């Protein structure tokens, strides 16, 4: 009676009675029809459910599974979450994005434009110590807001390894270097191509034979040397031929008005950047490279109290090597050819030897045209020697890894503390390739705040998964020869590059200066290479450097720091025609990015995260269209 009274009091509708079998069947049929009609209305039936279809199916299921009782004094069911406007390209409302601006092509004179190493702007700065060739980026009003064009006749570079030896003339239409270095076998013109015989000023028998000579003096073949720095690299033949020995070299040379040395290196598929030893630190952390090299690089190592060798010491790992060939080494043989007096060359060598000794370096060998020094594995003896050798002193109270417009100092960067003379300061590295996946010493020692061994291992697994997803949505990613030069704009620990080590490509790992820049040291400890970068400024490289650019959370990082199109136009400048961009970020940001990209002659598409459509983070996949100077589309 109590139940019956309560039922009467609640005024249950007739439909609250127990449903019959016929009623249940009718409801099921209606639900099915409703679901099918909804799917058809929103794009038809597909074999792969999108986020949109998932939300529709969820709605139908919730509606049909809910009992048909109508309970009084109860709010109507909360509508299910609808991801249509936020999680797929198809579901995005046209009104949610601004009308794309169409970016015009820059004039022809900007075909090789490098914003922070612009030849004309550089003339405003002092020539003393080549300061004018350092980075001097344009102010806001000077920035180009146009698309840097490729030269007429531009073609995709030859695939690696053929690109090591040949490049298209139309891509870098400069003959000056072929004339200036004709007798040194650097480069020559062959019809519509450049040929790179592999020669160099100090290796007339070719870079490979020269490297073999070095290998007789230090261990190049056992995996203990992986990262190298080539200062004043020419066309980077030394770095090109080290790659076959599993040694990854960062090559740099200053921007010049005609020789385009770094540009040739990049066309060959060899890692290189524009750079110069002048007044600023090189943009690498302390203890980065296993080996540094100068082959007639014309750097005055003995001047300015040995400042440039002191900078090399900062970026060399404990136990790292410095190799010098060319003046003044073997001056007794070459003095006449170098058109210098023996006294002058002897004095220069003695000065270099004195600087090296003051840094506590040990001279390993001088054989023929090659001399090699080694940095100590720790500073126990070196600190004790300061009682006798007063200069240079050890640096105090500075960040050894700070290297973004930071000035060089005439002091020794101290190595981490060591308790024993045999201990490697900062921790010994595994040999290559084990060092790629081993926990880097900087993480194992706890010197990177908030990062644990387990976090590093999980990050490595995550990027293997993510790269696998990239290859599933970009069919060309797994195609041999399609991509060679890759850029990771926010590399963190270098997980993206590590996941691609087995492929015939290399990755330049950039660590933004606005984030946790301490991770660049980890990247080098893994046996990878990279650089510091502020993406509100231009990168120190030529146009059309990279085949593929990866941007993970870059736009979230720079959301309130500079305009989106500032970053996107720079990406377009350094991306080859028909190159690929992968932008990983929050879907709302990707919608805005896509609206800009649509005005930049990019074809783009938003696709789901590797974990499915319900994740807010998405991927914007881009292909830059092919166009060159003189195309009607301009």
UniProtKB/TrEMBL annotation:
InterPro entries: Put_SAM_MeTrfase, SAM-dependent_MTases_sf
Membrane topology per record: Single-pass type II membrane protein
Primary localisation category: endoplasmic reticulum
Keyword Transmembrane: yes
Membrane-spanning parts: none
UniProt keyword list: Glycoprotein, Membrane, Methyltransferase, Signal-anchor, Transferase, Transmembrane, Transmembrane helix
EC number: 2.1.1.-
Taxonomy, superkingdom: Eukaryota
Keyword Cell inner membrane: no
Annotated GO CC locations: endoplasmic reticulum membrane; endosome; trans-Golgi network
GO molecular function, one term: methyltransferase activity
Gene Ontology biological process terms from the UniProt entry: methylation
A Pfam match: Methyltransf_29
Compartment(s): Endoplasmic reticulum membrane; Membrane
UniProt record similarity statement: Belongs to the methyltransferase superfamily.
Name the UniProt record assigns to this protein: Methyltransferase
Lineage summary: Eukaryota, Viridiplantae, Streptophyta, Embryophyta, Tracheophyta
